[in-house]
Structure formats: C-alpha cells, structure tokens
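Recall the central idea of this unit: under ordinary conditions, the amino acid sequence of a chain determines the structure it adopts. In this exercise we apply that idea directly, starting from the sequence alone.
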Amino acid sequence: MSGQNAVTPSAEGIAASIRAAKTRGLPPVHLWDPEFCGDLDMTIARDGTWFYLGTPIGRPELVRLFSTILKKEDDKYFLVTPVEKVGITVEDAPFVAVDFETKGEGRDQFLTFTTNVGDTAMAGPDHPIRVERDPETGEPSPYVLIRANLEALIDRKSFYRLVEVGEHHEDWFGIWSGGQFFPIIPSKDLPA
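Accordingly, the structure predicted from this sequence is:
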C-alpha cells in the first residue's frame, strides 16, 4: 500500500480545489494532465443546464466555476484540476451562445458572442462558426468555438438574428465576422 488515501471525486471537492488555486482569468487546464479519477454524475444538457446527481445546479457562480475547468479530449469532456481529472457527460455542446453584438457590416462585420456562463468570443478565424444540418429534417444546429476545443450551441433567437445580418457569397448564404465568411446554407436551398 502506498500510504495515500483513496479519493472519491465529488463536485464539492473539485470546486474546493479550484477555489484554492485562485487563478486570475481562466485556469491553465491545457497544462494540467492529472491521472483520471473516474466519472462524475454530472451532465450538461443541450439547453446549457448543468446537473449534478440528476439535480440542476442552481448556483450560477458554481456553474461558472466548473465551466472554467472544463476540458475536451477527443470526444470526451472532463473537469480538470492540477490533481484530479473526472469525466462528465455533455449532451451536445458544453455552452450555449445566448446573445451576440454586431459591429460594422458586410465584410467588415464583427460578431461577439456571449455564452450562458459568461464567456465571450469574437467569431473569426480563431473562433469559427459552423452549422450542422439534420439530414432528415434539415434543421440547422449552429455552433461557435469559444475556447480550446469547446463550442457553444447558438440559441434559436440568436440564430434568427444572425440570419438577419447574413448575405450571399459564392453560392452560399452565411455571415461575415472578423474578415471570414461562415456559410450557413447553399443559396439554392433557400426558399424563394
């Protein structure tokens, strides 16, 4: 026996660990690679609600804290501290883009998105927008990259607003931001 106590991961323990680290800004999770400690019964629903042990986490500051230590490796999501790494379930994207601001127009337009956990990202080469379409229904699911492999699903009201500032470019309807065009749908597939 190594003389170390076995640790069972818990949301409370992880929150205490990250509060103790007292980092400014986002913690450097990309530098942390602790041993995997197991899965935690935590889920991020498609609508951005975080659940622990089947119950919604009702404290926004706790959700924000957890969101800062979220990491994606391959197709799996983890909460990571310098000493713990626990798996969690993400139904779609870990964040929801709930609003955006527009500056400029056309090719000179800049779109800055805000997520449900308070992150912001200006769409452009470093924060691309992509749209997946359901092959059966054609329904779009738009996403914007927020940080380090972590995307936000753009909510419906924001997507409708994006369409309002969209335009046609090289046979596609889409939007400009940060000098880059992001296609949404082929122009020929739009209703007349």
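Helices lie at 11-21, 60-67, 156-164.
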